[in-house]
Design a protein that fits this description.
The protein is of the alpha/beta class. The protein has helices at residues 61-72, 108-116, 122-138, 158-161, 167-173, 182-196, 250-257, 262-271, 274-279, 285-294, 301-326, 336-341, 343-350, 362-365, 392-404; strands spanning 2-8, 13-19, 24-32, 40-45, 50-55, 88-93, 104-105, 144-148, 204-210, 214-220, 223-227, 331-335, 374-375, 384-387. The structure holds adenosine-5'-diphosphate.
Length: 407
């Protein structure tokens, strides 16, 4: 089945056209600066290896979708003769609150429930609503499916998701752990379970999605037991610009000391912390690694090393605590921008973990081929360690196809 996967942001719209029968990616692209000056589309026809990039005015997400449709059906850079060859649309949705524990076909009732999720992720939810409306306007009648980043984490038990705040805040405001990157954790843990070659119900896996945003999950028997992100994606390990777990008392302290408003302190924790805040010069792990490789002669060396060491320390703690929670550990998986590409960090995390039964294979770790699931632990290692490239779009396309086919 040909599925158009849509990831709508407030001023951008990413898309992929995937055939779920053959797992073929036909086209992908992005519309940027929607509603602003210099709006542009970049469209890639994968099979023919063609890329077009051009400015084109887009007032809203419906304009963007019209442009996407025009490119997908273009005789030269397109891949289908008409939109009739595309059976459905699958949307990536960042937050489904506690309303959605699995992917779902769009209906009026679903749309109303999605609007309630604005309380948790207002900017993202508004963007998704615009993306859905854009699709309804340009392709009326085409089935649409919503796939939620939070859904996979809905299997957590109350002690994992209820915070030890007065219970009434959970009841009144829905303040609890929701987690994020669920589609990625679901995909890589599923692939890992297949590689382990034993029934999913018996598997104990820690998945490390490490990118600009990072989260770690404990997946036992195919279900999430716990995950590092919380009420928002600010919690957990250190990230590109987010601080991750800190003593919550720091927030009021900083507000008083620096005379900050709630919005300002939120900005510090989300946009000025993490790699950027600690290193003082970059949120990108490549810049930090290159400063570290230069050695102490580089003025950024010490703080770059500290920033990376903090992440290593955080992730080790999560792996250890999740192994304790699951009463065992079969595998650790690394994925996303840093997890898939940063061999140094993977080594730093997996070193000195013999206690857990991790025997690292350094030679395999430094030669991981791009885009391929690769084992980076020794054959004798009690715990398997893998790099598994994530593919959230494929999961969205497959869920969409299954729901449309009525499965
Ligand atoms: P996002 O959370 O925005 O999706 P990504 O998963 O793309 O982010 O991760 C971005 C991070 O991955 C950056 O810190 C970047 O340095 C790192 N990264 C991406 N590609 C590579 C690469 N080829 N080599 C090393 N690091 C990479």
């Amino acid at each position: 089945m040909n599925i158009l996967v849509v990831n709508a942001g407030s001023s951008s719209l990413k898309y992929q056209l995937i055939d779920t029968d053959t797992n073929t990616l036909y086209a992908k692209g992005i519309c940027e600066r929607i509603g602003g000056e210099g709006a542009l589309i970049e469209h890639k026809q994968i099979v023919k290896g063609l890329t077009v990039k051009k400015e084109s005015p887009m007032q809203n997400h419906a304009d963007a979708m019209n442009l996407v449709v025009a490119h997908l059906t273009d005789p030269e850079v397109g891949c289908v003769a008409s939109m009739d060859e595309i059976q459905a649309i699958g949307h990536r949705v960042v937050h489904g609150g506690a309303y959605f524990s699995e992917s779902i076909l769009l209906s009026d009732e679903v749309l109303e429930k999605l609007k309630l999720c604005r309380d948790f992720a207002p900017l993202h939810t508004d963007a998704h609503l615009m993306g859905i409306k854009g699709c309804l306007d340009t392709m009326p009648g085409k089935p649409q499916v919503l796939v939620f980043d939070t859904a996979f984490h809905q299997t957590m038990i109350p002690e994992a998701y209820v915070y030890a705040l007065p219970y009434e805040y959970y009841e009144k405001y829905g303040i609890r752990r929701y987690g994020a990157h669920g589609t990625s954790h679901r995909y890589v843990s599923g692939e890992m379970a297949k590689l382990l070659g034993k029934p999913v119900e018996e598997t104990k896996i820690v998945t490390c999605h490490i990118g600009n945003g990072s989260s770690i999950s404990a997946v036992k028997g195919g279900k999430v037991m716990d995950t590092s992100m919380g009420f928002t994606p600010l919690a957990g390990v250190e990230m590109g610009t987010r601080c991750g777990d800190i003593d919550p008392a720091i927030v009021p302290y900083l507000m008083e000391a620096e005379n900050l408003t709630p919005a300002q302190v939120n900005d510090v924790m989300n946009k000025k912390s993490g790699f950027l805040g600690v290193s003082g010069f970059s949120s990108d792990s490549r810049d930090l690694q290159s400063a570290i490789a230069d050695g102490p002669s580089n003025p950024n060396y010490e703080r770059a090393l500290l920033a990376v060491n903090i992440l290593k320390h955080n992730i080790k703690k999560y792996i250890g605590s999740y192994a304790a929670l699951m009463n065992g550990l079969d595998a650790v998986v690394f994925t996303a921008g840093i997890g898939e590409n940063n061999a140094e960090l993977r080594q730093m995390i997996c070193e000195n973990m013999e206690f857990f039964g991790i025997e690292f294979n350094q030679a395999a770790n430094v030669t991981v081929p791009h885009g391929t699931a690769t084992k980076i632990s020794a054959d004798t290692s009690k715990v398997a360690v893998y790099v598994i490239p994530t593919n959230e779009e494929l999961v969205i396309a497959k869920d969409t196809a299954a729901l449309v086919a009525g499965k």
